[in-house]
Inverse folding.
């Protein structure tokens, strides 16, 4: 789309292994997570920087944990701070 730099966020990079999935909803959610992980891997490779929040064990459809998701994203972005600052210098 004409962007000079691409910053990606991979919410599924830290997907947790699951020993057992309970019920049909659990199977459907797990299927969604695995599918999203597959697609996000391909997209992440095209980004100049990819931020990967640590969300293992969290269900991204649980809107009651928005604060947890935001904090994980902030922490992951801060972990990439040096890379982001270098990218910013290239745009100046």
């Amino acid at each position: 789309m004409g962007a000079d730099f691409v910053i990606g966020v991979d919410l599924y990079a830290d997907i947790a292994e699951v020993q057992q999935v309970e019920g049909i909803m659990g199977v459907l959610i797990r299927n969604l997570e695995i599918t999203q992980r597959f697609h996000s891997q391909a997209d992440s490779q095209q980004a100049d920087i990819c931020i990967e929040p640590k969300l293992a064990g969290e269900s991204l459809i649980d809107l009651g944990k928005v604060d947890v998701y935001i904090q994980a994203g902030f922490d992951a972005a801060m972990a990439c701070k040096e890379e982001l600052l270098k990218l910013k210098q290239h745009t100046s």
